[in-house]
Design brief:
alpha/beta, Archaeosine Trna-guanine Transglycosylase, Chain: A, domain 4, Rossmann fold, 3 domains, four-stranded antiparallel beta sheet, about 30% helix, Altronate dehydratase family protein, lyase, GD_AH_C, SAF_UxaA/GarD, GD_AH_second
């Protein structure tokens, strides 16, 4: 295995694939570089001298400024590298970039066994979802799901309740975010039936939530106000029985890759995420989009510093303008709350070798491959166009992955260098950036992207696409086997 990766010839840093010792000679583009200090896996070292104040370059782009002179072979990290982001921006529109990367016929022809819904969308699961309008009835929803899940085991793919603490004591846009998110979840094609449970006196009233759901998507939805019935548990169970009877016989059928809606996400990233897992997921995005499918990318604060790469692929001036507005609104959100736009990476990211937000963002945007940017959706919105949709949501793993599901993702590819057990309403495949994590946390990790360092991207791409097809066809992900199925809602306003 190679000891370090030098991504672009103009980069003045390379990234260690494994732990490297001091005084070790590392060959970079045919030239030996002697390490001045030990370099941990995922961390960077200079391949040539870098002057104080000069740009540090990785992925072919600046990832910050050297805060001190850095000698060749020296560790490059938070002690000598600082962000150059200050909240300002100047974006340019230049039309769509190249089309999606070409793929082998084996990849292009890949399909899956899915559930065709009445409106033409296709689900990867046939489940019953119980969605509370407010936190007060969250435990009721969970209890009903547990009882009904046992009662109807084998008839549907599962009965799941998605508890949350919101829906009351919220105002304005904050309440609107909660309502829009829950209404979008209720329309998801993975839910053959949905029970929306309200309390009765909450701010998030059932009627207002239903107003956000088109009439043609309400046939599989039932509602109940707990305060309006004597035995709320029995009433909920009766409605779930009705929903199961209506959808239990829905068959899986062969569907093309174009029917897949792919959500892409990274969490607990390390210095290898942008070299292995994220570009591998980008190839999956290219494959789905080239077939005519939809790809969803979010985590807006984690594209700061790399926005222009996405905007260069905007399919029209209108899409470009929407992307600029979304990015600027999110930066204003930080500034209004007195926070710098560069308040990232996380402690785990830093321990894994990521130093600045520019570095993290340049690695993160690779999950979108080279798919043309065709739409921008605000939080709680639903993707409707084949190609790449940029979705408003913060970087938080649970909040952004819930937003991806609500926007229609029927499977989520979640890359990680540090590992996490979290799972979400849509089947979520955890893809490790390094083989050590994949081996150590086999109960969490579905796929080892560290293999691309030896086997290359082509072999790994075919293997991962086969796993995506199998999962979309019903094979459980690690998170599903571990019963990790949760949602989180973006809390952006005051609480009464």
């Amino acid at each position: 295995m190679k000891k370090a990766v030098h991504i672009v010839s103009t980069d003045n840093v390379a990234t260690a694939v494994g732990d490297l010792g001091a005084d070790e000679d590392i060959i970079v583009d045919g030239v030996p570089v002697r390490l001045a200090t030990p370099i941990g896996r995922g961390h960077k070292f200079a391949v040539a001298p870098i002057a104080q104040g000069a740009a540090v370059v990785k992925f072919g782009f600046p990832i910050g400024i050297a805060s001190a002179a850095i000698a060749a072979g020296e560790h490059v990290h938070s002690h000598n590298l600082v962000t150059a982001l200050d909240g300002s921006d100047a974006f340019r529109f230049q039309g769509a970039d190249a089309p999606c990367r070409e793929h082998s016929p084996a990849i292009a022809a890949q399909g899956f066994q899915g559930y065709l819904r009445a409106d033409g969308r296709v689900g990867t699961r046939n489940e019953i979802w119980i969605i509370p309008t407010v936190g007060c009835v969250g435990n009721l929803a969970a209890r009903v799901a547990r009882i009904a899940g046992a009662r109807h085991a084998g008839r549907v793919d599962g009965v799941h309740a998605f508890k949350h603490p919101f829906g009351c004591s919220q105002l304005g846009d904050d309440l609107g975010h909660t309502r829009a998110l829950l209404a979008a979840l209720a329309q998801h094609p993975n839910a053959g039936g949905v029970l929306i449970v309200g309390l009765g006196c909450e701010s998030n009233q059932l009627g207002a939530l239903l107003d956000l759901i088109p009439m043609e998507r309400r046939a599989h939805i039932r509602t109940l106000s707990a305060q309006a019935v004597e035995d709320d548990e029995a009433a909920c169970l009766a409605l779930v029985d009705e929903l199961v009877a209506a959808c239990a016989d829905t068959p899986r059928s062969e569907r093309p890759l174009s029917d897949l809606v792919l959500g892409v996400k990274c969490g607990g990233s390390d210095g290898l995420s942008g070299l292995t897992a994220n570009p591998l997921v980008g190839r999956m995005a290219d494959a789905v989009a080239a077939a005519g499918g939809k790809v969803l990318l979010t985590e807006i604060p984690e594209i700061f510093g790399a926005e222009q790469i996405l905007m260069d692929r905007a399919a029209s001036r209108a899409v470009f303008d929407d992307a600029v507005a979304l990015v600027r609104d999110f930066k204003d959100y930080f500034i209004r709350n007195g926070e710098p736009v560069s308040e990232n990476p996380s402690p785990g990211n830093i321990a894994g070798g990521i130093t600045t937000l520019e570095e993290k963002s340049l690695g993160a945007v690779q999950k979108g491959g080279r798919v043309p940017l065709v739409d921008v959706q605000r939080y709680g919105g639903v993707a409707t166009r084949p190609g790449l949709t940029l979705l408003e949501a913060p970087g938080n793993d649970a909040v952004s992955s819930t937003a991806l599901t609500a926007a229609g993702a029927t499977i989520i590819l979640f890359t990680t260098g540090r590992g996490t057990p979290l799972g979400f309403p849509a089947p979520t495949l955890k893809i490790a950036s390094n083989s050590a994590l994949a081996e150590r946390k086999q109960g969490w990790i579905d796929f080892d992207a560290g293999q691309v360092l030896d086997a290359g991207f082509d072999a790994a791409s075919n293997t991962l696409l086969n796993l995506i097809s199998a999962t979309a066809s019903g094979a459980p992900s690690c998170a599903e086997r571990n019963e990790e199925r949760d949602i989180a809602i973006w809390k952006s306003g005051v609480t009464l």
